[in-house]
UniProtKB/TrEMBL annotation:
Gene3D superfamilies tied to this protein: Periplasmic binding protein-like II
Superkingdom as given in the UniProt entry: Bacteria
Entries under SUPFAM superfamilies matching the protein: Periplasmic binding protein-like II
Organism: Kangsaoukella pontilimi
Signal peptide residue numbers: 1-22
Keywords annotated in UniProt: Signal
Protein name as it appears in the record: TAXI family TRAP transporter solute-binding subunit
Length: 323
């Protein structure tokens, strides 16, 4: 018989001799071992193991963020890396997760932002978000997180009035350079190496996202938040480009006990300096960024810790998300 996560945590305590410390197991889904999220997961697991008695955390190699949500819904992972959009849709049982059980996956902590790049060429037919309608658009590969964001953008701006090309970023950039698509969409951390390469040989432009379009988008998708791609990030793009993005972060099962999540959250936050030696993204985390991008409720254990340390905007976040 397969125990649910909460039962497994309780059972671990029941079978131990008197005075022994319960050993709870926390599997953190990430991605293939070569990707950044695996490095993040491994660093967090190490900090938890060193600082939280009775928890054995493990970074699990997976196929990626989309697969992680399914594994969590099946009870095969207790926590995982995810984008804040996937976290929201899984919690609300909407979008890509319509028909699943809502409320099982909760927000834990935001780690680093990703920015929507709308990539085009000078002299081409795309000069605004509205120009994407009716055009040939690179969307990202099937099963990839960026493709989910591209789907959301194009549904809002064009409905079905466009020709999608669902390929990897490197292939999209080549197709754009060769004139086989009119624009490429990619939600990722900047700078993007294939876009740097494109800018070295072609006159690149990034399409700004105006306030009106962003406000309409965020009304339907609360995890999106405003940010800019700084001028100079890519050759020939001198000005800051207003766009929007998501958070890469951690989500956790609602079945993990509150006290455990409180202890683990405290351990991670109090060891950000050490984690910055694992990956520089941790060095940019703070009370001001820990909620970035999340549109779904926090796990009660995380909420308890964030209130304790006075995370700015925490009560507004609770009012907006319900937790």
């Amino acid at each position: 018989m397969k125990l649910d996560i909460k039962s497994a945590f309780v059972a671990a305590a029941l079978v131990l001799p008197a005075g022994a410390q319960a050993q709870d197991f926390l599997s953190i889904g990430s991605c293939p071992v070569t990707c950044t999220a695996y490095t993040w997961s491994a660093g967090i697991a190490d900090v938890i193991n060193r600082n939280v008695d009775g928890v054995q955390a493990t970074a699990e190699e997976t196929k990626g963020y989309v697969a992680n949500i399914a594994l969590m819904q099946n009870g095969e992972l207790e926590a995982s890396m995810a984008t804040s959009l996937s976290a929201y849709e899984a919690w609300a049982a909407t979008g890509n997760y319509a028909g699943t059980e809502p409320g099982k996956i909760l927000s834990w902590m935001s780690i680093a932002p990703v920015a929507m790049h709308i990539i085009a060429l000078e002299g081409g037919p795309v000069n605004s978000v509205e120009d994407l309608k009716g055009k040939r658009i690179g969307m990202g590969q099937p099963g990839g997180v960026s493709m989910l964001d591209a789907n959301v953008l194009m549904a809002k701006v064009a409905g079905e009035d466009f020709e999608p090309f669902r390929v990897r970023l490197g292939d999209m950039v080549d197709m754009l350079s060769d004139g086989n698509i009119d624009a490429a969409l990619w939600n990722g951390s900047f700078p993007l190496a294939p876009v740097i390469k494109l800018a070295a040989t072609r006159d690149l432009k990034l399409i700004p996202v105006e306030d009106g379009f962003f406000d309409a988008l965020r009304a339907d998708y609360p995890p999106y938040f405003r940010l800019s791609i700084p001028g100079g990030t890519y050759e020939d793009v001198a000005d800051d480009i207003p766009t929007y993005g998501l958070a890469n972060g951690l989500v956790i099962s609602a079945d993990v006990p509150e006290e455990r999540v409180y202890q683990m959250t405290k351990a991670v936050f109090e060891n950000l300096d050490a984690l910055a030696g694992v990956h520089p993204a941790f060095g940019k985390m703070s009370k001001e960024t820990i909620l970035n991008g999340f549109g779904s409720p926090l796990h009660p254990g995380a909420l308890r810790y964030y209130r304790e340390i006075g995370v700015p905007g925490i009560e507004d976040f609770v009012a907006r998300t319900g937790g």
